[in-house]
Amino acid sequence: MAEVVPAPRGASAKKRPTIWEVARLAGVSHQTVSRFLREDPTVRPETARKVAAAVKELGYRPNQAARTMRTRRSNRLTLILPGNTERISPELLRGAAAEAHEAGYLLDVVSLEGDAEARAARLEALLEPEGTDGVLSFTSLGEGAAAQRSVPIVIDGVYDDEMRSRGAFADASRTADLIRHLADLGHRRFAHVAGPDEWPSAQGRRAVYEETVAELGLESCAIAAGDWSMRSGWEAAKGVIAECGATAVFAASDQVAFGVIAGLQSMGIEVPRDISVCGWDDWEIGRYYRPTLTTVSVNRERQGRQAVRRLLAQLRGEPPVGPMGAAELSRIILRESTGPVRTD
After folding, report:
1. How many domains does the chain have?
2. Domain end (from 283, 298, 313)
3. Where is each HTH lacI-type domain found (predicted)?
């Protein structure tokens, strides 16, 4: 017969429900409730159903601090970003948080700021097992991290201090696919509006653009400097592209592409009838712009989820999960802003 535990004296309906109240409602001992909360497989299915119903009815939540003291686990993961977080992808964070929450973890997002000494001190505190069960970092942690490693650490891709993507995050291979697609539509004369020189992603897109144009025997009429802004796209369209004879423009980002289209349209040049334009990022406005924008979409939410899966695999002692390749994360979306070369 199940032990029935009386309610503690002085209990108030307004107070947070206790494990004792769950036990009383379910008709079991508080030890049985504790075993259920630890997902002990020896709890009988019928008993588990009763406890689960009581937990739900009372809205019971375990005391996280007490649980951490008992299990030495915090049920928290830490996501580390470099100092400047203004340009971090919301989709990346959303995917990481969703995957962590679905696995039963809270996700703490922190940034490493200051000089090397300040970062090292902050990192030392973050790596304490009482504060986190594992660390996912989108920035290099330095050589000291390995020596301090008291919890699992995954470094997925790398951003620098200005949130400029590096490594796999800056992959530009889809540029070649875009140029080949435009060449298949009859285009032979191209122009590129680049991103800032200091950005590895901009460097990569320009490099792959130049390599692919040369490989296919096409002509690059102009490469205009840009800074990710619509203004730079507008100025490139008015000052270079309209007069260089290009029939297709690859812009380093959607925002630049919007400026190119607006600049061309202001001069009576129609897109895509006269010049095709494509971008990169798949900004939502591109789906409603006129014309809608051909672009490269990178699934940052999936990327965030996969990064957390890599960390969870370490935590659980499962086989390693590798990072996702560019082909798995990105795809070309063809829309109205690109079309066959004009022949009349």
Report:
1. 3
2. 298
3. 17-71
